Amino acid sequence: MLMIISTKVYAEALYQVGVETSKPLEFYESLRTFQEFLNDEEFNRIMGATFLDQNALMPVWNELGKSFPQEVVKFLGMIQDAKLMSDFNRVVREYRDFLEEGKHLNVVEVTSPNVLTEDEKDQLMHNLKARYKGVFEIAYHVDDSLINGLVVRVNHDIYDTSIKSKLDRILNQGGLENE
């Protein structure tokens, strides 16, 4: 009987090994690098062409072993054997979620009405470091519908200083109905 194991179980197993070996962030960087490799058409074609012949990937695993932790290389082999390489982005996302839950990584999403300058990004980073400890992974987005201010999500916290959100709250509470 074939047993299907979810990508979350694989991600959790690697996370636990990462914590035990004090390398959870190093593992994450290796996963992200491999994710970039998979975005390369030629590399992805090679991975797909070797889908039925696992031994054909030995040179790939050997080469990765020169710069990736051995635990990650073995993990990638397991993912390939389980035919989950097409779900690799989900594995990385779930691994990142475990890092976030374990307080190894602060996942930050910043939405602003305009592209932030380097000075604004530096000031934001300074403020984040004053409030949160650890490593940050930051994604910046632009939303023209925002009126001034920012929306900053850090892990499960949301800071919304935009005028648009304040107006929305007033309207949702019926604040302008009598005007």
TrEMBL record:
Compartments, record wording: Cell membrane; Membrane
One Pfam family recorded for the sequence: OSCP
Gene3D superfamilies named in the record: N-terminal domain of the delta subunit of the F1F0-ATP synthase (1.10.520.20)
KW Nuclease (keyword) present: no
Entry keywords, A to Z: ATP synthesis, Cell membrane, CF(1), Hydrogen ion transport, Ion transport, Membrane, Transport
SUPFAM superfamilies associated with the record: N-terminal domain of the delta subunit of the F1F0-ATP synthase (SSF47928)
InterPro entries to which the protein is assigned, alphabetical: ATP_synth_OSCP/delta_N_sf, ATPase_OSCP/dsu
MF terms in GO: proton-transporting ATP synthase activity, rotational mechanism
An example Gene Ontology CC term for this record: proton-transporting ATP synthase complex
Membrane topology according to the record: Peripheral membrane protein
UniProt xrefs under PANTHER family: ATP SYNTHASE DELTA CHAIN
Function: F(1)F(0) ATP synthase produces ATP from ADP in the presence of a proton or sodium gradient. F-type ATPases consist of two structural domains, F(1) containing the extramembraneous catalytic core and F(0) containing the membrane proton channel, linked together by a central stalk and a peripheral stalk. During catalysis, ATP synthesis in the catalytic domain of F(1) is coupled via a rotary mechanism of the central stalk subunits to proton translocation.
Protein name: ATP synthase subunit delta
